[in-house]
Design brief:
The protein is of the alpha+beta class and 581 residues long. It has 20 helices and 18 strands.
Length: 581
């Protein structure tokens, strides 16, 4: 069952003058004698306001516009609370919000609405820069709304999805051998072509000391496979082997025993999205051509004549050129100056040097195409009256509120927030752990297929065997291509190591080794080659981060304090009583 919302919608009205439909009407009573005196009449009380309780699914669009709070004559809608809860619990799935959360979230919504109302009283919503930004947002949103309308029915292509999905999840079940000599590795493919089975051949080569490895089959996950190995396996079919692959410790040969396609819902979803995106792109491209034929007329002769790289008449002159280069039915034309400004936006440091390199005029066609796209899609959206749709108007309202709130914060609250250096230093002194780095290690490893092999190796080390000798001579080691973990040749932070290994290394010094069980049950003996102890970040380096954090906390307090003052000047009422099952 979906989680539900219990709304206490308070509907106050006078006591009914007729009998309730649920209660049968009573016959008229016989006339009574007049009361002896007014003082003998029983006291009358005003009827209690009645409340209607509505139980609604929290994330149902049907109830999205239901008021959950009121500030004077403005309401906070359930949809706003839904969005705020989703943002607060972005790591959870929709509907996982718990009842203790919604009151604080609703409180913040009301506080922000109070500040927005105050900002409008100050006239901050009339600032020219804010109106200009909002106008841009409106046009962009209109175009996006039209694109969504055009592509809403696009479905994934089943064949395309299956092809892309299988390509992304494909795994090779392989047997592998590692050779010291390239000629021994090169002899594998001819032997297989002669009819010999790989498993049989592997046993023979291992027995002859020409190859190392178990010869047992293993499924290679792509995220833990060396790029060179993955590239060599990609074109192979079942029953084929790679040519010798040059690796750090020798030459590897991998034999494809099978190709498997494990279930991966996330990868399938990615494939479906890619299919929809491709088809949507094609649909929008075709639609754009229709709009061009319907609305657009380009002055090709003038466009060819303009040269933004030419020294005359000069780029500054063209920026002011009012000649129409594109006429759009029912709209203002796109002028040479409009195109020049669009081209000039690409070059933040001026056009002089790009003009010398003949790089400016190349942009006139793509930039003009972008200008036409914006004009015709915006026009078509208005023709279809999308600027009157509820969805569009709500998006504009939300954006304007957000901009007004941000302007209030920047112009009214931020100037009053100040931090003293002693406050920053006090935070630094009280939170040293935040500014202490993790240890850094250089490690070497010996890898085995299971922990038994690693434990036998550790026992030999305990009896005095040299680690390098063990690494060069121990039997049963995993070839590099089959290792799930590789620590060698890198400077590694303890934060980047598997958590249990980092814990085991916490007490290790240079020359110590630790056992570690890796993915797929693999066993590792890990040697500490070097260790850099944790370092405390100096105050001067930590200060900017501390300042940013404390400034944010102070700004939040300023918002809360302002909202608390405004609450006293407004009539506020909440209708939602709980969230739960």
């Amino acid at each position: 069952m979906p989680r539900s919302l219990l709304l206490a919608v308070l509907v106050a009205f006078a006591a009914p003058q007729v009998a309730s439909a649920a209660e049968p009407a009573k016959p008229d009573a016989a006339p009574k004698a007049a009361d002896p005196s007014p003082a003998s009449k029983p006291a009358t009380t005003a009827p209690e306001p009645m409340a209607a309780r509505i139980e609604a699914p929290l994330f149902s669009p049907l109830f999205a516009q239901t008021p959950v709070a009121r500030i004077d004559d403005q309401v906070v809608r359930l949809a706003e609370l839904q969005e705020a809860l989703a943002a607060t619990h972005d790591e959870r799935k929709a509907g996982a919000a718990t009842s203790p959360d919604f009151k604080a979230v609703l409180q913040r919504l009301i506080d922000s609405r109070l500040l927005i109302m105050e900002a409008r009283e100050m006239g901050l919503d009339e600032l020219p820069e804010l109106k200009e930004q909002l106008a841009v947002f409106k046009d962009v949103t209109l175009r996006e709304t039209l694109q969504q309308q055009l592509t809403k029915d696009v479905k994934p292509d089943a064949l395309e999805v299956e092809r892309v999905y299988k390509e992304s999840v494909r795994r090779w079940k392989v047997r592998s051998l590692l050779f010291r000599q390239e000629e021994d590795a090169a002899a594998v493919k001819p032997a297989l072509a002669g009819g010999k089975g790989f498993a049989e051949l592997a046993k023979q080569l291992i027995a002859e000391k020409k190859a190392e490895g178990t010869g047992e089959p293993e499924v290679l996950p792509p995220d833990q496979t060396l790029p060179a190995v993955a590239a060599a396996l990609k074109p192979l079919q079942k029953g084929e082997a790679t040519t010798p692959l040059k690796l750090q410790n020798g030459f590897a040969v991998l034999y494809v025993e099978d190709i498997v396609y494990p279930s991966d819902p996330a990868k399938r979803a990615e494939a479906e999205k890619a299919s929809v995106d491709r088809q949507s792109g094609q649909l929008l491209t075709a639609f754009r051509k229709e709009l061009d034929r319907k609305y657009v007329k380009i002055d090709e002769a003038l466009l060819r004549k303009i040269d933004f790289d030419a020294p005359k008449p000069g780029f500054a002159v063209l920026v002011k050129d009012k000649r129409p280069i594109v006429r759009i039915a029912g709209e203002a034309p796109i002028t040479v100056g409009d195109l020049a400004n669009a081209v000039g936006e690409k070059f933040f440091h001026g056009v002089e040097k790009p003009q010398q390199e003949k790089r400016v005029d190349k942009l006139k066609r793509p930039r003009l195409d972008g200008l036409i796209y914006k004009r015709v899609f915006t026009k078509e959206a208005r023709v279809r009256k999308l600027d009157q749709s509820e969805e569009y108007l709500r998006a504009v309202e939300d954006q304007e509120n957000s901009m007004v709130f941000g302007t209030f914060v920047q112009r009214v609250l931020v100037p009053d927030v100040s931090l003293k250096d002693e406050d920053l230093r006090a935070y630094y002194d009280g939170h040293r752990d935040e500014f202490t780095s993790a240890p850094l290690y250089r490690l070497e490893q010996v890898a085995f297929a299971d922990m038994k092999g690693a434990q036998r190796a550790a026992e030999r080390l305990a009896r005095g065997t040299d680690f390098k000798w063990l690494k060069a001579n121990a039997e049963g080691q995993l070839p590099p291509a089959q290792r799930a973990l590789d620590f060698e040749g890198q400077l590694l932070s303890a934060k980047g190591l598997p958590e249990d290994l980092a814990g085991a290394l916490g007490s290790a010094q240079v020359g110590d080794y630790r056992l570690h069980q890796g993915p797929r049950g693999q066993g590792y003996v890990v040697l500490v080659v070097s260790r850099t102890e944790p370092q405390v970040q100096p105050y001067a380096e930590a200060r900017p981060d501390i300042q940013k954090k404390l400034f944010g906390q102070a700004l939040n307090r300023a918002v809360t304090d302002w909202a608390a003052k405004l609450r006293a000047a407004h009539e506020i009422e909440t209708f939602i009583t709980r969230i739960g099952n």
